[in-house]
Amino acid sequence: MENKIKKLVEFLEREYPLTFYSGNNPFNVLISVILSQRTRDENTEISSKRLFSKFNTAEKIANAQIFDIKKLIKSSGFYNVKAKRIRDVSRILLEKYDGKVPDDIDKLLSLPGVGRKTANCVLVYAFQKPAIPVDTHVHRISNRIGLVKTKTPEHTEKELVKIIPEKYWIKINELLVKHGQNICRPINPKCEKCSIRKLCNYAADLPKIF
Q: pTM of the entire structure?
């Protein structure tokens, strides 16, 4: 399995240059990931840009009118819930952490609306700490390839941390997300164009397409 994972990472790195090393603002990462919940990536990007163009710190969001926040993040979907959530998070950050985002998994999980995927995304993309954020792309592809046999993203994370060497943790989310966006889609995956199809159990069951 370790050799399969090594090849998987090598193939995907050649196809999708990593971008997280540029250093991201922890607060922006946290709020953006909360906005990304149950919506498309492009909608998250639009909402995040609009929000941060006006309110780009915990203090500004904490003191903003809820109506103004809703208007800025409307394209992210479920904006009524998310507006309250990100304002609550901002207020807690001010009260407990001097406006700074903690780099501790337990402290992150104590924030409203922050589950394991969100917390792990913050650790990886804001602090470059080893973790495996499991979203729908990572969950789907890990099962299709045959790395795991799991029913939920939470279970997938538990299994992946057992089999993926820690040196790959910080990069695996970005690689699989990009692959999921471009090739390994939920419906009608482009197996004929896939660089890792020889490693994939799903593709092995569809030999006629190659």
A: 0.91
